[in-house]
Design brief:
With 211 residues, the protein is mainly alpha-helical. The chain has one domain. The protein is built from nine helices and no strands.
Length: 211
């Protein structure tokens, strides 16, 4: 992962994505609003429930929840089950600080991911993006472009967690340094810096990523 973040263009990519220094008439990527829309999905008053704002936020990353699932989340038993899980998933720690047990198979975060993934027409990409909106410091965005860039480990969460903690947290410190150099808001988590940098770099190389 560290090698993917060492390109000379990474800082420029980050600034372009988040609309920093965009020339007049230019537009940032819609995903630049993902973590910031309506103050963020992890702000205390909404951290443990999925709101309509969260459903709009994931649309900025080019995915949409099916209407029946969205309504079940907002008004039905699915939303109540997810809220129960979110209540027990920490929102104030970075992935690098988490224990393996917070991310492993069977963990509360993993249960929430499976619950979402298994809904009709949702799948792993949308499930991951919605949880990343609710826990942006703990859970990463992971889509087909990032998967194409980094491969398919048995558990992306655990693989990334191990990389972040290796060598005295060198990767985590690299991500924070990239954020500072690019001038990103403090509300952009280290995980999001990683996602955007890898996504922008791999996308720019025009790889044909398998679905």
């Amino acid at each position: 992962m560290s090698a993917l973040l060492s390109s000379e263009r990474v800082v420029r990519d980050l600034r372009q994505y988040f609309g920093l220094g965009v020339p007049p008439g230019g537009m940032p990527f819609t995903g630049s609003r993902f973590e910031h829309l309506a103050g963020g999905g992890d702000r205390p008053e909404v951290a443990d429930r999925i709101t309509a704002e969260d459903l709009v936020a994931v649309q900025t990353l080019s995915v949409t929840l099916p209407a029946p699932v969205a309504l079940d989340i907002l008004e039905g038993p699915l939303g109540a089950r997810l809220s129960g899980l979110l209540h027990a998933i920490p929102r104030d720690i970075d992935m690098v600080e988490a224990e393996v047990s917070d991310l492993a198979a069977g963990s509360l975060a993993d249960q929430a991911w499976h619950l979402l993934r298994d809904q009709p027409d949702v799948g792993w990409v949308i499930a991951g993006k919605l949880l990343a909106r609710k826990r942006p410091r703990l859970l990463p965005v992971y889509d087909r472009v990032v998967r194409c860039a980094v491969g398919r480990p048995p558990s992306f969460w655990l693989a990334l967690h191990a990389e972040l903690r290796a060598d005295d947290r060198a990767l985590h410190r690299q991500l924070l340094a990239l954020s500072q150099t690019a001038g990103l808001p403090e509300t952009v988590s280290a995980l999001r810096v990683c996602d955007v940098a890898v996504w922008m770099g791999h996308r720019a190389e025009e790889h044909a990523c398998p679905r």
